[in-house]
Every structure is written in structure tokens, then in C-alpha cells.
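Quick one - first record:
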Amino acid sequence: MSEDRHPAPLPPGVTRRPVRRYTADGRLAPEEQDTVALEEPLDIRISGDTVAVTMRTPGADRFLVTGFLFAEGLIHSAEDLGGLAHCGRPGEEGYGNIVEVTPAPGLVIDLERMGATKRGTLTTAACGVCGRRSVEDLMATCSPVPPGPELPASVLAHATEHLRSVQPNFARTGGVHAAAALDERGSVLAAFEDVGRHNAVDKVVGALVLEHGLRSARASQPAALRPTVLVVSGRVSFEIIQKAAMARCPFVASVSAASSLAIDLAGRAGITLATFVRNGRFNVYSHPERLREG
């Protein structure tokens, strides 16, 4: 993008930095302004105690924090949250990068569950299960996703196409991931972008918890909603399957590949895992019995 004396306002999550481009004819072009993805730290605190620090794209922080706590098993529904707010005042240095969580009255959140992420240890956007050692450890904290529902293979084959319409920041920068939750008909329930693919998933899960009544398997009441497909733009790692399992989501679809441990966990957790979902095709690694032709 060339420099503009009066540039148009940027969307949230995007900023500008100077750049000089080396061209194919061997010339170093003059400096201009480029649009890049915004990345800032988020300090997540519970009752004043830092639980984790993650690098994220600012915006939808309440969803990100809620999804993160839900995926770690620290909360099981929106009713477990008494309060969630940014610390400080607008205009102060660092405002917007610290979120304070207050548990619901009478609820004690077990911070020891966080293991290595507790008390200031950096949880990067590429690390969603710090301290978890194996599939067995995770399966001890969340039961497998129940069988069903069946889904036409064509719905899964075109699932990643929904990401195109929810990636305005990617279109401007090429530097962010996206995630979306779909219902059985393939309609989008929630979708977000973030510099971290795990953060994008946390924002989606947090929106399902706060706005759609998603509850974990350990909640006192049955879930009001069960998302059907979690769609992600990047590689499927162990952590992505963990978050899908905690959200009781039976399908995960990715534009890219999956790691060996993600495949193993999907099989154990009862999740149908599809990768390289592009142009109406995909590879399925686990629980293909949920798919029917059509």
C-alpha cells in the first residue's frame, strides 16, 4: 500500500508501520506505510493473581478470557463469572492490556489447575495447554464428546469457506488467523480473528459461553447449545483439539494439516478431525462414522 497524506481509518486490530520494499528489478523502493496486524500482551488475572499472559490482537478480550478459562476447566459456564473488566482507566499507559476476573459469589477457582501458566509464566499465542503432558492427562479432565450428530460430508467439505467472509484483518495484513463455530446447517455462530490461532479459538468459545449459553460437561445444567463444527485457518495442534473437546464440539475442520498428537487426541476425545479442507475436499483422520455422503 502506498503512503497517503490522509489515510483512511484502520479497522480494529490493524496498525501501520514504515516499510521499504526490495523489488524484482533489484531496486530498494522509497519508504511507505504498510498495514500490519496489531499484537499486544494481555495479562489475565483472577482476584488479583496473574494466571497467564498471552500475546493477542486487542479486541473481544472478554470472549478471549472467558474462552481461555473455559478451555482450562477453570469455569464451566457464564454463571461462574462474577465480573470481568479491564483494569485502570482509559488513557493510562497499558490500559486495555490487563483483565481482572472476579469469580461468582461462593465460587473458588482452583488456580493450581493452571500448572506452569500460573503466576506470571508467559503463555504465548502458540501455547494453550502449558503444563499438560499427554493425552491421558487431558482425558482425565474432560470426558469424550458423545456420539453424533451425523453431518453431510458436503457441509464439512465447504466449512472453511465461511472463514473468507470473517477475515477483514487478514485481507489487510495477511498476518492473522481465524476461527469460527458452525451449527449443524453450517451457519456461523461466532467467528473471530487474532494473531494467535489459539486466541482466535478462545474468542469463539468465549462468545459461545457468554452469548449462547455453552456449558461444559461438568456444569450443573445441560448445555443450551452444542456447536457442531470448529473451523480454523491454521494447523491443528493438540491445543486446538483440547479446546474443541472442552466445548463439546464434535467436528474440527482446518485449512491446513494436523499434528500427530492432535490426531491421537481427536480419536480419544470422540472428535471427527478433517484437515486440508479446501475446494470441496478434505482428509478425515478420526471418527468418520459421523459423516454421510451428500
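second record:
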Amino acid sequence: MLRKICLWACVCGLCWGLSSCFRSWRKNERDLRKHYANKPVRPTYYTIQNDSLRLFVATTGADTLPPLLLIHGAPGAWYGYLNMVDDSILQSKYHIIAVDRLGYNHSKHRKKRIVTSIDLQARAAALALSLNHSRQKGVLLGRSYGAPIAAKIAILNPQRFNKLVMLAPAIDPTKEKFWWFSKPAKWWIVRMWLPHRINLASFEKFAHAKELEKLADEWPMLQVPTTVVQGGKDWIVDPTNLDFARMKLAKKEAQFIFLPNAGHLISYSHPDLVRELVITPFQHPSASTISVQVGTNEDHK
């Protein structure tokens, strides 16, 4: 009896801990209404539907401007890019399109509750480009687990983009990080108490290495100029993912930026740098790849 009580106590503690870890990152409709109460520009929301899926999208900026497609990580939602969606400079230059990936927030696959396929996630997110009417090439940005999905979108739609930006990309199949709670988070008794977004993120993590192995053979097909940014103090994605990117993109139009003191959330710790990378035309006249060491007093741990 005591053993069962201890087991349930551990399970409850684990469930509470996992839920609490991500609680601060989740926003409900009330939070978003409060956030936009006094904002001069509010997003326009769309739901793209077909027989297989429902894709939720938030946009700002005129749809006649080039698209800036934002792909979030795991767990996540479109509002993970809130600072970019609200950026007046970006709004003046781009039609900003932030999606909820399949299974997260308001997006879902009608036949599959859990979607761990990079290919399927990419094909679904790319449907959001139908909202743009500029007929111009745009920019594609993905971070963390969203970075390989963004890369897949670029591979599938090279004619739609003139630049791909990957922030803290989880792209090396041999460097997938696991924590003490990773395996227990897959126990059915734990999953039944956790929010769906956390369960999906857990299943994505365990499928990620195999999905990245599939993608590994497709990197030579990437034709879109690419910038990769990695922080040296990133405890979520191994910084050596930057080395993997160098290897896979060695013969490509690519730029690599290493931020020694930055953590994982580069779009928030270095918003000015990210904005510059998005709005500046890709240039590298002298070499196929360059390495840039950048460090500031504002770097986050």
C-alpha cells in the first residue's frame, strides 16, 4: 500500500512539474486580448481547412508585401513569435505569417492526433503561404524544432523564398538531448494528466532523431540561401548543431553566426540581430560560407 502511495505521489509530482515548466509559455485568449488592448496593430486570424487538417494562422502586415513565414518549436504556438509579429519595422516590410504547427494550440490533423513527421508538418505549414498575394519571394524563419521543418519547407518550395533563417536549430540526429523526465513523460499514466501540447512535444522528441535522419539526405536539395544562428550557452539544443549545419551546408550559400553567451531563445535575447537578418538581403560575395563571432552584454544565459 505504501509503495502504491509513493508511486502515485511521484507521478503527481512529475505531472505537476512538467505542466509548471511550460505554463509560463502558454497564452490563452484573455492573455492575448490583454496584450493587444492598446496595440496599434492587431493580428488577423485565419483558419485554413481541408479534409485532412485545420491550420491556424496569425498575420500582420499587408498581404501584398513579401511573406515572412514563422515556424515555432516544441512545445509552442504562433504567439511564441509575438515580438516579431508586433514589430512595426517588420510589419512595414513583410506580410508576417505565424502558424500554429499541427497538434499545437488551434491547429490539428483530423486523422492523426500526434504528428511527428517533419515532412507532414512542413507541408501543412506551407499552406499558410496561400494567404499572401504579393507574388514575391519572402523569408522563412524557424527555431529549435521548427528549424528543420522550415528547412523542409524551403526544400519543397524554393521558388517562394530568397532566405532561410534557422535559430538554435535542432538538426543533428546524433545530438538529440534528453532529460530525466523525458522517458517518464511517455508513460500513459503521466500522459493522461498532461496537456496535449506537452505530450505532442514529448512524442516529437522521441521521433526526432529518425525524422532528422530522413532529412539528412535532403540537405543537398536545399537551394535557398541560409543563415544559421546558435548560442554557446544553449542548454536545450546542443551548440554543436552549428557544426552539423556547417558540414551539411558547406557547398551552399550559407552564413553561420555563433553567439558565445546566448541561450536558446535568440529571437527574444537578440531581436535587433534577428530583425537585421530578416530584412537585409543575403550577401556573401567572397565565400560560400562565413563564420561570425558575436557577443554582447545583453546575451542571455
